Amino acid sequence: MRGHSSGGGEPSPRDDAIHLLARREYSRAELASRLAAKGHEAATIAECLDALAEQGLQSDDRFAENFLRSRILRGQGPLKVRVELERRGLDREVIQRTLVESEQAGQGDWFALAGEALRRRFTGPGESPRERARRERFLASRGFDFDQVRHALEHAWDEDSSSVP
Fold this sequence. Notes:
The protein is mostly helical. The chain has three domains: about 15-55, no CATH class; about 60-105, Orthogonal Bundle (Arc Repressor Mutant, subunit A), CATH 1.10.10; about 110-160, no CATH class. Helix content is about 65%, strand content about 0%. It has ten helices and no strands. Helix 2 runs antiparallel to helix 3 (about 40-55) and helix 4 (about 60-75) crosses helix 6 (about 90-105). Mean pLDDT is about 90; it is low at about 1-5 and about 160-165. Belongs to the RecX family. One of its GO terms (cellular component) is cytoplasm. It is found in: Cytoplasm.
């Protein structure tokens, strides 16, 4: 059979992993879980994932960078991104390094991103305490911290007010 490395016609862990990685990046933990669900032995999964990492075909760093970039485009904050990456089995050091490198590259300006998300969702800061609380909850649910929420509420519409014709 084409694409199968074992003699019994069953795909090898590598075949299954390559098939998954062809569609999108996966963390090591996600791949291990999916390969185990397909019935592969834990020892052969670990061996396969080590080989894929050595060959540069699987990388938790690359997964974290791509994941972070996609979440920034969705307007999600650093708290939510961190939780999602931890849930996908990434090491805290990898997560922290990815967040720091993103900020240093100018991609993770969380204060600006919080303001942008707020502007897209709401036309203004809200007149009543209830409306302002609704905006706070919106940003908090997107994973922004207290300081980012406060900054966004105070400054989200600053630029817009000067550019209104």
